[in-house]
Amino acid sequence: MKLLSVIFLLLLVIGCSHPEDKDFERNKGVKSNADVISSNEILQDDEKIRTESPKIDLNDFSILKMESENGVKYVWIEINGIRLRFIFDTGASSICISPAEASVLYRQGTLRKEDILDMEYFQDATGKISEGTSVNLRIVKVGNKILENVKATVVDNINSPLLLGQSVLENFGHIEIDNENNQIILR
Question: Is the pTM of this model over 0.85?
């Protein structure tokens, strides 16, 4: 992004008529002692400036709209075809869901017996060791990216929030939080 901004600024400056420019209306006919390189010379001479911009494929990006509530950032993602609202939590090791969401997924047939893996222990944000159930989510859709067979934890607490953690986020090489536009850009 910074490279594109620099190139745009350079092209803007090169293309503008400056009041000291000999072609500027008030300076017509006035000679200048300064050596001036024309914009055409700069653009034609590869040794001076490279104007190639990197190719950006928008399909490589997933942009999630953030919702803020009491300082917490929420995003919507799909789990096995069901859209759910998650807390964006870079500190969580995996996707965490409560038994209530797991029950809904199971009743709708999107979470099957073979997707229930094993009991596991994890450390929660308070430092307490808690018990949960490890499950396999066959399809997790984050923006326009589809992830398959993502490990998640069903936390043994009916009131636990949905957390979007590292088992999903580690599938992206770059994560940018854009607070001005309330979005998360993943690529």
Answer: no
All residues at 6 or more sequence positions from 176 whose CB lies less than 8 Å from its CB, including other chains: 184, 185, 186
- 59, 186 contact by CB (below 8 A): no
Under 8 Å between Cβ of 79 and 137: yes
Please give the mean pLDDT across all residues of the chain: 77
Distance between CA atoms of residues 30 and 166, nearest Å: 65
Number of separate helices (H) and strands (E) present in the chain: 4, 11
The CATH number fitting domain 58-186, selected from 2.40.70.10, 3.40.630.30, 3.40.50.10320, 2.40.50.1020: 2.40.70.10
CA–CA distances in Å: residue 109 to residues 47, 82, 97, 105: 62, 11, 16, 6
| Rounded Cα–Cα distance for residues 130 and 124 (Å) | 7
